[in-house]
Amino acid sequence: MQQQHIVYDDTTTRRFIAASMLFGVVGLLVGCIVAAQLAWWQLNFGVPYLTFSRLRPLHTNAVIFAFVGNMMFAGVYYSTQRLLKTRMASDLLSKIHFWGWQAIIVAAAVTLPLGISTSKEYAELEWPIDLAITLVWVVFAINFFWTLAKRNEKNLYVAIWFYIATIITVAVLHIVNSLALPLSPLKSYSVFSGVQDALVQWWYGHNAVAFFLTTPILGIMYYFLPKAIERPVYSYRLSIIHFWGLVFMYIWAGPHHLLYTALPDWAQSLGMVFSVALWAPSWGGMLNGLLTLRGAWHKLREDPVIKFFIAALTFYGMATFEGPLLSIKSVSALGHYTDWIVGHVHGGALGWNGLMAAGLFYWLVPRLYGTTLYSVKAADRHFWMSTVGILLYMLAMWASGINQGLMWRATNPDGTLLYPNFVETLLAIRPMYIVRFLGGTLYLVGFLVMVWNLWKTARSGKAVDGEATVVVEQLAPVPEVPGKPAWVAILTGWPLVFGLAIIGVSIFLGWANPVRALVLMGIIVALGQLAFIVARRSRASGNPTWFALVEGRPLAFTVLTLLAVLIGGVAELLPTILIKQAVPAHGEAQQPYSPLELQGRDLYVREGCYVCHSQMIRPFLAEAQRYGDVSRAEEFIYDHPFQWGSKRTGPDLHRVGGKYPNLWHYTHLMDPRATSPGSNMPSYAWFAENKIDVKLAPKKLALMRKLGVPYTHEDVEGAEARQKAQAEAITADLATQGVQVAWDSEMVAIVSYLQRLGRGPQDIQKPAPVDPNTVTAAGGVP
Fold first, then answer.
1. 3-state class of 600 per DSSP?
2. Which helix (DSSP H) or strand (DSSP E) does residue 182 occupy?
3. If I label 667, which of 204, 218, 514, 593 is the partner at 20 to 30 A Cα–Cα?
């Protein structure tokens, strides 16, 4: 037995905190800009790089991966070293991780406004940056698990469990969802298409929220909240239930983003069941955090750190109540595609993540600089500005979203739409957009107060690294079950067996009618009671608990966590192969895009049109009346990537093909208010000036052939000629109405794509109708 003096690497933590605050300002500022653009379309400034649809992905990526990501790494590096009683394994890997992550953020900040995007939400970055993310994440994982291997503490505290789950799950999610074939260094196409791509994307999208914005922040909560209150976490047993419940259930919930779409019903129902079930472990974790404060409520009045932590947990509870609520099909029918969803996600991002970040920084910075907080009063003001700002934002979006949903479905006594013009809804909610902007601005001002306060705090001290003297001794033997190898005891442990049985029964809830569902829920309750009885008898026998067997073996713990994630992932994604076999791949069901339409589709992706427009007509009478025939799965089999969208600031576009003449689309893109008075859509006049790269057409078709789109060799060879012929037909039509535009302009390509949307092979040759009441020869409103 010997003592070892450890100097922790807190330089890395300080760097991540500084980066988080810097990019937090950037992300929140861009958020305020895009919120203002929704209320005042003139703030798009007619510049391609500053449109709402290009800045919105920059905002989401900056907040998620730059602000919260850097905050997460700061908390992980600080707490991991102290929980494992050792310095991080490699200072070099820590530096590579930090600077590599910042380089990725800068690359995103440059490419997204330039329109270099995959259009997959929260995964918009193109393939070279995706590769960089993978490499930097591997560096982080090696450093973390290497540190875990050389630890001087036998027991793995609950925060470490959540960090392990984060590292391995994010890696799986990122790799699968990023699978693509590159066309060039700045362009690629997803290997998945249509329904498959939608399912993979929202399996990733939902679990990016789960395992990037939730599990690591919960790990930080479990470490820093008890530290701030100076008392242990309320319930270790509840921590175990919270962890395994989240890891098992979260990964199944992705399909709730696709309710009432062309996704098969079984997948939608499965996602709904597990989303609703998430109420239990999520609220268990929230209550575990809040009850940790028992007997110390007086600190809530005195310490701003505690205020931020408790408010963050409260918003976590609100978000994890609202998420399952919105996953119920009847509620989703009203809320999906509306601002209600926007309010929900910002409650999590600004309330849960943002307030946790503030509490973390207020606690850490004074300790990292050997001083005290410069101004407690300023921190209190920040707290109230943030809280009021979030509430203004969420209340505005709740009111806006519910108003949207009700107006979209409202009908007259004769069954016709009460508000047939989509812009009527937009005009009705404009006051809520202004309130949203004010709430977000107030939150940003509070954040700037924190940055100033912490800068003054750091200036009043000097950087210091934490130190500790630990007793280095051979780690005690891990628990064993007499007469059984450890791996057998783990794989046959009652918690694992009962857990798998409960999950197996829960899966069938997705297909069950009400009576069978009640029976299945009764079986689930009985299994839970039986598991409790067996666990009590096992403890009475003196044998180590199943979790003690696992926790003492980091490799076994990591493997079981990975399996917990893969079970849900495989169960969701593997059937996509069967879906693909069931959807017609050739023939009359669907015709691949022409070369010009494919070029136009890439422009649609570049401009981020999916941010405001959906391409998915749900099976509701009001939607069929407003947009046309309900969308079918086979219509998207050649869409790499899919473009279903997740928000309707503008109308659905799936059946827009052939609905208006070419002149209408030209006029609408040049000046949206000429065709749609009251629209907040920016002008895309640069389409008329910019030229497409006509030489790329055959290369795009050749790549699509590799992805399974049935282009022939002749299609590829004749791509340029077909492209020009179709373009000249559009330009000739526009010329007869007084509009001159080059055949190889981006305008012609995007119009060709829009005219194709929702049209089958039998409709494509039909010209779009000319409605003299829609546009005049000059392109304006008569």
1. helix
2. strand 180-184
3. 593
Q: Is the pLDDT of residue 578 over 70?
A: no
The fold for domain 2-338 equals Cytochrome C Oxidase; Chain A (1.20.210)
The Cα–Cα gap between 576 and 263 comes to: 10
In a 3-state reduction of DSSP, which class is residue 2? Answer: strand
Q: Are strands 187-190 and 180-184 parallel, antiparallel or unpaired?
A: antiparallel
Contacts of 523 (CB under 8 A, 6+ apart): 505
Q: Measured at the alpha carbon of residue 421, what is the angle toward residues 415 and 426, in degrees to the nearest 5?
A: 120
Helices then strands, counting H and E runs in the chain, come out as 33, 4
Beta-bridge partner residues of 647? 337
Q: What angle do CA 235, 237, 241 make, to 5 degrees?
A: 115
Pairing relation of β-strands 187-190 and 2-7? unpaired
Reported as a pLDDT band with limits 50, 70 and 90, residue 587 is: very low
| Contact indicator for 208, 143 with CB cutoff of 8 Å | no
Q: Angle CA(399)–CA(403)–CA(405) in degrees, nearest 5?
A: 125
Token pair of 627 as six digits:
């947009």
pLDDT at 516 over 90: no
The answer to whether residues 505 and 520 touch, using CB atoms and an 8 Å cutoff, is yes
| pLDDT (0 to 100) of residue 32 | 97
Sorting pLDDT into bands at 50, 70 and 90, what band is 773? very low
- CB-facing half-sphere around the CA of 671: CA atoms within 13 A: 9
Task: Give the three-class secondary structure for 190.
Answer: strand
* H or E element at residue 216: helix 215-229
Angle between helices 422-459 and 376-409 (to 10 degrees): 170
**In whole angstroms, what is the distance from residue 460 CA to residue 230 CA?**
25
Q: Which amino acid is at 591?
A: Q
How far apart (Å, rounded) are the C-alpha atoms in residues 366 and 374?
9
Which tokens go with 110?
Answer: 């440059």
CA dist 611 and 717 (Å) reads: 34
524 and 498 Cβ atoms separated by less than 8 Å: no
* Cα 326–Cα 656–Cα 602 angle in degrees, nearest 5: 85
* Count of Cβ atoms closer than 10 Å to residue 254 Cβ: 31
Q: What is d(CA 140, CA 125) in angstroms, rounded to the nearest whole number?
A: 20
- pLDDT score of 767: 47
**Per-residue pLDDT tens over the stretch 435-449:** 999 999 999 999 999
How far apart (Å, rounded) are the C-alpha atoms in residues 575 and 563?
18
Q: Which two tokens stand for residue 423?
A: 């812009």
- How far CA 395 is from CA of 59, 80, 433, 497, 773, in Å, comes to 21, 38, 11, 44, 40
CA angle (450, 451, 452) in 5-degree steps? 90
What's the average model confidence in pLDDT over 729-752? Answer: 96
Beta bridge partners of 190: 180
Q: Could you tell me the residue ranges of all domains in the chain?
A: 2-338, 486-578, 587-756
pLDDT tens-digit readout, 696-740: 999 999 999 999 999 999 999 999 999 999 999 999 999 999 999
Closest residue by Cα to residue 126 from 55, 184, 69, 59: 184
Amino acid, res. 763? D
Confidence of residue 780 (pLDDT cuts 50, 70, 90): very low
| CA separation for the pair 631, 616 (Å, rounded) | 6
Is 465:8 a contact under the CB 8 Å cutoff?
yes
- The token pair that represents 648 in the structure block: 């309707």
User: Which residues lie below 8 Å from residue 254, measured CB to CB, with a gap of 6+?
Assistant: 199, 202, 203, 204, 205, 206, 207, 271, 572
**Amino acid found at 754:** L
The fold of the 587-756 domain, in CATH, is Cytochrome Bc1 Complex; Chain D, domain 2 (1.10.760)
Give the Cα separation of 295 and 754 in Å (integer): 63
- Sign (positive/negative) of CA torsion 652, 656, 660, 661? positive
